[in-house]
Amino acid sequence: MLQKLILLLLLSLLFSCKNDANKNDKIKSAQWLIGKWENKSVDGNLEETWKKVNDSTFQATSYFIKGEDTLHFETITLQQKGENLTYNATVKGQNNDKAVAFLLNTEIEKQLVFENLKHDYPQKISYTQITKDSLVAKIAGKIDGKSTSEQFPMKKIE
Fold it and tell me: Alpha-carbon distance 45 to 37, whole Å?
């Protein structure tokens, strides 16, 4: 009887450790975002830099610069809490400088799609890895009832 109880306790401990080890699997699947990404166009330069803060959090800054003017600046926190992976975007000068949360809706190999249908625009933000040194960031949603989207092909520069 004592042997069965010890075996049961060991199995319980083994499975609880396995569950803890897998709890951050979703953010691990986004590891390819880490680095500095750039999109240069005639409209300006977009730079997005992702860093790993810890096992459950990544942070990024995103700038859109035209000439000497910063036209857009945002900070992003990608955070896993339990089974949820949330993309929190804070855009300077919007939403009282408070973060807007987008929940991971679709996760397939090399693609992450975050969604917040209550947000004005965008309602979807996605990242698709094309190669280890290139990705496409896309924002999409409806403006005045009309579907619209913008894509930003980016190259890894660091």
Answer: 11
Q: Under DSSP, is residue 144 helix (H, G, I), strand (E, B) or coil? A: coil
- Find all residues with CB under 8 Å of 32, minimum gap 6, and list them: 110, 129, 132, 135
Q: What DSSP line would sit under 33-50, residue for residue?
A: G-EEEEEEETTEEEEEEE
Tokens of 89: 């975007």
The predicted model gives 96-120 an average pLDDT of: 95
pLDDT(2) > 70: no
How far is Cα 112 from Cα 129, in angstroms, rounded to an integer? 9
Instruction: Please give the model's pTM, rounded to 2 decimal places.
Output: 0.83
Segment (H or E) for 78: strand 69-81
